[in-house]
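Project outcomes to date are best conveyed with an example. Our students and postdoctoral researchers have been running inverse folding experiments weekly, and each run begins with a structure described purely in tokens. The record below, which covers 289 residues, was selected by the lab manager from last quarter's runs and is presented without edits.
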């Protein structure tokens, strides 16, 4: 069990006062069997009205509305949480799904909906690449997914990328490099091409020993994927680090597409050249209390 403090500070600077549009924040971790939220402090400068709601995926979304013009916007989130996910999880996969291919039940198929449908165009190369991990007519399901996740990091070189946006799976395969969000999208789309229900997860990576890929310090924002397997439910795969399970992952939001789980998004009204820059600071550290 780990008691952790996550601090996430996003700052925007403007060369002259601007009018800020509503901002959408996804900064509250998702509670579950392995994660318990202990505290949440959200501070915004300039002062603003904050309302909370849940989106269609059950993510907590804060909408921030401003009434004054400003030349600086700072969003500071401090979260305390308890993380109990095991390092070596055991998955109770239903007998009907132990071997691939298997069939989701009618209810599962209906409820998974678009999470089973690939999001990006494919000329056949992605499915052919994914099919290469299927060892035969009857393949162990969990082994297949583990091999697929490891195959992403084997074929793709990790490269941090600060600019917005995500590469398509084919772009990532063609270029041979990508960020954690590109790894997550490639894995999820490859799994969908094989008939699995998959979703993208954004959150934080806890990296106390600086051994994990995707963080230069004790923690950072991160992206990974989950695949639905009957009996076991949603299984976490981090293709960037070839890991299974969430012992060092703090989920904040899940969705079909990476564009739906952006931590901070919004707009401003002002001169085009008014935007002077932004910075993001994230730390994930053990609680000393």
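After processing, the design step wrote out the following sequence:
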């Amino acid at each position: 069990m780990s008691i952790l403090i996550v601090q996430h500070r996003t700052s925007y600077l403007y060369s002259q006062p601007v009018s800020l549009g509503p901002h959408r924040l996804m900064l509250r971790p998702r509670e579950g069997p392995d994660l318990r939220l202990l505290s949440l402090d959200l501070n915004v400068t300039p002062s603003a009205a904050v309302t909370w709601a849940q989106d269609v995926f059950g993510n907590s979304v804060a909408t921030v509305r401003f009434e004054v013009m400003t030349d600086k916007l700072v969003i500071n989130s401090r979260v305390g949480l308890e993380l109990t996910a095991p390092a070596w999880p055991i998955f109770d996969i239903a007998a009907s799904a132990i071997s691939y291919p298997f069939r989701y039940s009618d209810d599962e198929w209906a409820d998974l909906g678009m999470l089973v449908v690939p999001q990006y165009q494919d000329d056949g190369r992605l499915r052919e690449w994914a099919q290469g991990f299927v060892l035969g007519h009857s393949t162990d399901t969990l082994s297949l997914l583990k091999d697929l996740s490891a195959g992403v990091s084997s074929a793709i070189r990790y490269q941090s990328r600060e600019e917005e946006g995500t590469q398509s799976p084919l772009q990532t395969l063609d270029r041979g490099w990508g960020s954690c969000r590109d790894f997550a999208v490639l894995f999820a789309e490859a799994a969908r091409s094989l008939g699995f229900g998959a979703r993208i997860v954004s959150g934080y990576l806890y990296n106390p020993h600086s051994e994990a890929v995707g963080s230069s310090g004790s923690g950072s924002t991160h992206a990974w994927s989950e695949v639905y397997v009957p009996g076991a439910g949603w299984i976490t795969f981090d293709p960037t680090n070839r890991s299974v399970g969430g012992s060092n992952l703090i989920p904040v939001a899940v969705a079909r597409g990476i564009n739906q789980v952006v931590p901070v998004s919004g707009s401003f009204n002002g001169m085009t050249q008014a935007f002077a820059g932004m910075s993001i600071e994230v730390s994930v550290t053990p609680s000393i209390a």
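The mean pLDDT is 94. Helices lie at 106-112, 125-131, 141-155, 169-175, 180-193. The training component of this project remains on track.
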